[in-house]
Amino acid sequence: MSLVNGKRQAAWFADEGGDEVDAEGPFAGIVFNRPIDQVFTYRIPARLGQGVRPGQRVRVPLGRGNKPAVGYCVRVDPEAPEGMAASRFKEVIEVLDDPPLIDAAMLELTRWMASYYACSWGQALDAVVPAGVKKQAGTKVGTFLTVPDEVRQSFETLSLPTKQAEALAVLCRSEEPLTVADLCRLAKCASGPITALRQRGLVRTVRRRLAKAANGEAASDGAASDAKAIPTLTPEQTAVMAAMTPALEGDEFATFLIHGVTGSGKTEVYLSAIERVVARGREAIVLVPEISLTPQTIRRFRRRFGKIAVLHSHLSDAERHRHWRSIAAGEVQVIVGARSAVFAPARRLGLIVIDEEHESTFKQETTPRYHARDVAVKRAQLERRPILLGSATPALETWRNAAVGRYVRLPMRERVGARPMPKVELIDLSHERLPLGGLSEPLRQAMTAALKDNGQVMLMLNRRGFHTFVICPNPRCNQVVKCHACDVALTYHKGRRLLICHTCDAERPRPSACPNCRAPNLHYGGIGTERLEREVEAAFPEYVSRRMDSDTMRTPGSHERVLAAFRAGEIQILLGTQMIAKGLDFPNVTLVGVVNADTALHMPDFRAAERTFQLVAQVAGRTGRGDRPGRVLVQTFAPDHYAIECAARHDYDGFVAHELPERERFGMPPFGRLARLIGRGPDEPVVRDFMEELLERLKAAAPAEVTIQGPAPAPISKIRNLFRYHLRLRSESPRPLQLLWQAVAADLNPPAPVELAIDVDPVNLL
Ligand code: ADP
Ligand code: ZN
């Protein structure tokens, strides 16, 4: 008897009465997209013909009621586990995919994800396969004609009526299965001869699923369009390429961190590295934050590579399915996409690139709560391939991985063409009068000067809406107006005349009085992008300005249109949230204004300073990218804060030198590991009691190196009418946290409506 890797087996027994033992294996190990950490064994019946292979989805009876459920086959064993009679296992009903959706490497990667991120194997697998693939969107099931092999070998010797002989010959020579209609057309016959062939048993029918003819964008684009000369690499770029060459040419696992200032030519290095592996017939996956999937970025890849697939969130299920198939079929050289593209089914992977690796959007905030950067490094390790992480402001986790030698850090200190880094000036808002709202006098003057000089201006304010809070003027009440369903202050959106919750999107009309004490004349305060837009329009009426945030960029394509108009010079002032801060390259931007650098600084999050540093440094990098020097003005109430000071000096090392000792003192990442347990439910005391009980269990099972904090209400204590409590686990390495969770999770039963989630390496602490 063989029991693969000793994982726990659960047998769902068939009727005890079954006494015939003729039914033998093989047996399939099946996992489900449910929070059950088990591999279930099913018998593969002979009637399934080719059987079941690992990586295929199957339909099987599940549970006492034997309800048909879809699961993933993760292994096939010739014999039943541990001496159990084969007849006691339920049977696989049906195989859903042929060929398998998941290859062996992805099975291994998802098993790692399940153990690392504390989810089930089935949940991890389900995240890998896009919905469009599971639904087989864009395909149709049809009846097709086939010829049995023995007939195919001898059809020329058969004596048949002419029409039938012709139809049979056409079908035998066809490379694709044909429908009756296809065959009638190709053999120029009516359906009568085909029916006769079927009756003679010379032709059979099968039901198959085939892709519908693609209309619209092809999965892999044809030849590169406006091809441009490939630039000669700068000395720094050449040095970086030289350092990576052995890994690129030798298929070695190695993690490179390209730590290059904004405009140092990192993207050009990615392109060169990809070229090396593509030239060897391999494929590359490039992950970028969703917001950076702009036509400009995509064009740079299209120019250099013939066959690329772009996986962004606006794809229809059918398009996503088509991309997946063509990637799996080896028809794509370069896959560019957001977070989930880390699972692209490239079968001849040569390289993974992660641009802006510090971005928090690489972390998925629903189960499985994986970090695409870390999953990508694991994938590269399992498949023995190089991976490149690039950033001007690496995450401190990445920085430390480089410092201890796990990653190879490759610095790029100079901008291409020896362009200077822009000069950053801080404006201390505590000394400024802001009569109209967001723009200080120095910022206005700088805008006037830049615009007069035919330069373009970008203004960043990381808050949507018009007023960011509404507050009761009565000094004895003084409460902000909150969402009915969340513990969150509402934002006033003037254009829509509504108060909106940015957590649950609930909307309501403006109250005429304080909902709490009925005091009239509520006070509106705080500045969002909508108000900034009004202010800019009033102050610079002779220039065209546009706002870019998730309110104005709702329709697909609007983001691209505004960026194209800005590039063409039709817009002079672009203002918006961090949407405008990321990865954009506009040579004519000579002024960047950060309207409020402090928005992230006071968040209850140990990464608040890091986020602030990254954001200011990234926005500052948006200027001075052409031949004209750039200027950056940063408005802040905290000009002496090291995060802001260091960002202003483009001083990553200085920031790290300040920040790391703090983190080390409290054992926070990158020196320790965190896991966050979040309980939520409609009844606050029930949630709290459950979390208290969980704490006791954790304490009983925790080794000394794990510290436990909480339970406490989460910083956002209620979302969508569910009360939220959290516990934080911390230890020096991830292993003790995993073991502790495994020990406790096994027999944990939250009372009915309470849900418990675990977030390993949390990014969002709210
Ligand atoms: P980063 O990704 O580090 O911000 P990019 O790769 O976008 O930098 O390069 C910045 C600018 O410099 C781009 O306009 C790019 O086309 C240009 N550039 C990059 N490398 C070279 C080179 N070797 N020679 C000339 N121009 C280059
Ligand atoms: Zn809400």
Instruction: Assign an overall shape.
Output: globular
Major sheet summary line: 7 strands, parallel
Strand fraction band? 15-25%
Helical segment tally?
21
How would you describe this structure to a colleague?
The longest helix has 18 residues. It is built from 21 helices and 30 strands. The chain has about 775 residues and is an alpha/beta fold. Strands 11-12-10-13-14-9-15 form a seven-stranded parallel sheet, sandwiched between helices. The site of zinc ion has 8 residues, from loops.
Helices and strands in order:
Blueprint: E1 9-11, E2 27-31, E3 39-43, E4 57-62, E5 67-77, E6 94-95, H1 104-116, H2 121-128, H3 131-134, E7 139-146, H4 149-154, H5 162-173, H6 180-187, H7 191-199, E8 204-211, H8 235-250, E9 254-260, H9 266-279, E10 283-287, H10 295-304, E11 308-311, H11 317-328, E12 334-337, E13 349-355, H12 372-382, E14 386-391, H13 396-403, E15 408-412, E16 423-428, H14 441-452, E17 456-460, E18 469-471, E19 491-493, E20 498-500, E21 507-509, E22 523-525, H15 529-539, E23 545-548, H16 558-567, E24 573-576, E25 589-594, H17 608-620, E26 631-636, H18 642-648, H19 652-665, E27 673-681, H20 684-701, E28 707-719, E29 722-731, H21 734-745, E30 755-760
Parallel strand pairs: 1-3, 9-14, 9-15, 10-12, 10-13, 11-12, 13-14, 16-26, 17-24, 17-25, 23-24, 25-26
Antiparallel strand pairs: 2-3, 2-5, 4-5, 4-6, 7-8, 18-22, 19-20, 20-21, 27-29, 27-30, 28-29
The structure holds adenosine-5'-diphosphate and zinc ion.
Zinc ion binds at residues 483, 485-486, 488, 501, 503-504, 506.
